[in-house]
Amino acid sequence: MTHDEIRTRIKALRKEAQLLRAGIPDKEDKNRKIRETVKKLVYGGFPRVFVFASYRDEADTMGLIRELISEGTAVFCPKVEGQDMTFYRLLKIEDLTEGYKGIPEPDIEKGLEPDAPSSDDLMLVPGLLFDREGGRIGYGGGYYDRYMEAHPCVKAGLCFSDQIRKEKLPQMPWDISVDLLVSDHGTLITGKK
User: Fold this and answer.
1) Which of 105, 128, 147, 177 could form a disulfide with 79 if both were Cys (CB 3.0 to 4.6 A apart)?
2) Closest alpha carbon to 78 in 63, 96, 94
3) What share of the chain is helix, strand, coil (3-state, %, to 5)?
């Protein structure tokens, strides 16, 4: 496939995935299972977690963020700054405010400290679709691909099991795959390229 054909296919998959995610049943139960799975991962050896603040009908991270902070885990969320992201440590869930495109982001007016993940930190990555090899279709801005390229860490796609495809997703050469998938069905180690 040419780059244009891949872009066209990815665009169609994004539309399909948004409709799919909006119609996922039993989200409350699935979100509870996702939180439990993430906490097992974190307590298994990740003292620092870099996580997106959920927006609209994404797998919920707000309850997870609240629980991790209250249990002493260092939690960092991203803020879009131009074409890049910077992660800031949250001390409480109220450190988030409406940001880029209405997505909750750290309120840097509160003096929050920026930081970047190291190779042994966990990053929970959003996406519309994932495949079992770690392929990911995001929202099209490239923020996470650029960030993950520059900051190697353990990357986990966080999603509902309905968002995981058996067939390989089309990818552009610069797309970064995730190491794990975390869903309401548990954790899957990917066949990442």
Assistant:
1) 105
2) 96
3) 35, 25, 40
Per-residue pLDDT tens for 16-30?
Answer: 999 999 999 999 999
Which residue range(s) make up the domain with 169? 3-189
- Token pair 């090899």 is found at 133
- How big is the CA angle at 67 (ends 63 and 71), to the nearest 5 degrees? 170
Please report the beta strands in 60-179, taking only residues with DSSP state E, as ranges in sequence order. Answer: 74-81, 84-90, 96-98, 104-106, 114-115, 122-125, 129-131, 136-137, 154-158, 164-165
CATH of the domain at 139: 3.40.50.10420
Q: Which amino acid belongs to residue 13?
A: L
93 CB-near residues (< 8 Å, 6+ apart): 62, 65, 66, 69
The total number of structural domains in the chain stands at 1
pLDDT digits (tens, 9 = 90+) for 143-179: 999 999 999 999 999 999 999 999 999 998 889 999 9
Among residues 121, 124, 144, 118, which one has the least CA distance to residue 37? 124
Which among 104, 40, 114 has a CA at the least distance from the CA of 74? 114
